[in-house]
Amino acid sequence: MINAIVLFIFAGIAEIGGGYLIWLWLREGKPFYWGAFGGIALAIYMVIATFPSFGKVYAAYGGVFIVLSVL
Predict the structure, then answer these.
(1) Which residue windows are coiled coil (predicted)?
(2) Tens-of-pLDDT digits for all 71 residues of the chain?
């Protein structure tokens, strides 16, 4: 259970942070490396999403994603 919670938090930060960095690069004119770091963060999210303990309870991740997005 703890393992899944930690994975959810890391996945949420990677997904939200990666998307936000890419948005800042494209919309706000930040340097290219902001977009590159955003792409790396999204790639890390995809790796986390392949872990077996993450996949078993993926539906619950939606709730975690919403909470992290609001924060």
Answers:
(1) none
(2) 787 788 888 999 999 999 999 999 999 999 999 999 999 999 999 998 888 777 667 777 778 888 888 88
Contact 47, 18 (CB under 8 A): no
Q: Is 65 exposed, middle or buried (0-12, 13-18, 19+ CB in 10 A)?
A: middle
| Separation CA 27–CA 1 (nearest Å) | 38
Hey, where are the domains in the chain? Answer: 2-66
Q: How much is the pTM?
A: 0.81
User: In terms of Cα–Cα distance, which of 4, 16, 19, 5 is closest to 53?
Assistant: 4
**How far apart are alpha carbons 59 and 56 in whole angstroms?**
8
